[in-house]
Amino acid sequence: MLCLSYICKFTPRDKHIVLMGEYFGHVMHVIDAIRAQDAAMVVSSTVHRKLSTKLLQRMGLLYLPPKVMTWRYARGVRSLAANLAAAPHPVADASAANDKTSNPFENDVPAELEQVVDVLLCGLKDRDTVVRWSAAKGVGRVTSRLPFEFADDIVHAVLELFSANESDGSGNY
Description:
This is Tubulin-folding cofactor D ARM repeats domain-containing protein. This protein has 173 residues and is mostly helical. The protein is built from eight helices and no strands.
């Protein structure tokens, strides 16, 4: 799992896209087998769950093209006097300008990503801290590359984990 995770991290994205459909199903089958085996055992492998979470996160990131966030800090004029002189009225938000030039295929999200997000959200409820950390990093990274509508759904799903109905007394959060 660790080797596959490093391969997904360091190999260029365009090389994975060609074969992604073939080996995604195999990886999901192995991860389901590990989860079933862990459920049957008294002492389960934390490392297997952590590495499977990490691998799925990286595979999910391969499905989504990297994009620059419109809300990120953009360096501007360093002099306050020059900045005030150049813009006497409030400047329009940069994200509004970037939304007009967005990609029309931005809302195309692969169906496999739903499985990835489901496993990551289940990882947030894991009993081991390292698995929850890995799942949280994965949820954050995948959500940052999704269109706003899909990212909003994931944020709501994460917030539902904190509801009283989801609490099983384990106190993991």
